[in-house]
Amino acid sequence: MKNLFLILSIIASILNVSAHGGKNHEHSDIFENVQAGDKVAILMVHFGTTHDDTRALTIDAMNKKAQAEFPDVELREAYTARIVIKRLGERGIVKQKPLDVLTQLQKEGYTHILIQTSTIIDGVEMESLQKDIAEVQSEFKEIRIGDPLLYSPEDYEKLIDILTKNQDSETAYVWVGHGTYDSNTAQYAMLDYMLKAEGHKNCFVGTIEGYPSYDDMLQQLKVSGLKKVVLVPLMFVAGEHAKNDIAEDWKTDLEKEGYSVDVKMEGLGQNPEIQDLYISHLKFISGHRKIGIMEKKAIYEVTGEKME
Question: Over the stretch 210-235, which tens digit does the pLDDT of each residue have?
């Protein structure tokens, strides 16, 4: 009977959130849940960069914005790129892995953790973070993780609205992402599809290490007939890949094809509106708890139907 009441309570919570557009979360303010002796911390997780200029404009800027949104909450940061951590360490700049920061927070008595990443898609970096969290999950009362920049269709729509402002219809805009070697590369194709579906026929998506590739993008670009191109990094920071692969390799290759090419050397994290999208994800998880799939299945067993 106790389990039945718990399940019915969860059902009510989901229905309440569904009325506001969310299907996988229940209202649960983490700050109202803390008890005497509990402590909440925010962990901002970034891939990282060795380039000081773009780090200040992106990673540091978003950390500051998150702290301003939650001024009374302890805020830490972590990098997921081991090679970046190593190279910065050789310069005397210390950055830690997520697992190391979480372990330290546990030792300091923090019980509730809000994690927000600056990843673009739900790919291998998010998978790596989830594995780190799994190692220490039992040491905390609760850990919540915010979505990457692109997760729901609404996220894609918001990003498209931001990045297509004040565009010249006679110019081709090519958004270049890092890409991934696994099935998550489909998210870049989804972005390209939604751009076209919303009427942005002069916008194209390509990736350095995934699909759509440079050749896939070039095929579409040739069909468009446009000859002026602006390359735009679809990356949080304009670091190694943006300065070498995009500003040099892709630019040179397109110029050999007869295109006039400019490069917008700016990481997505430099755009205040995009920073706000990430912060909105962080704010959402501070007030909502994600319903796990096994919890939902338990509900289906009672209701006999799927919650919509």
Answer: 999 999 999 999 999 999 999 999 99
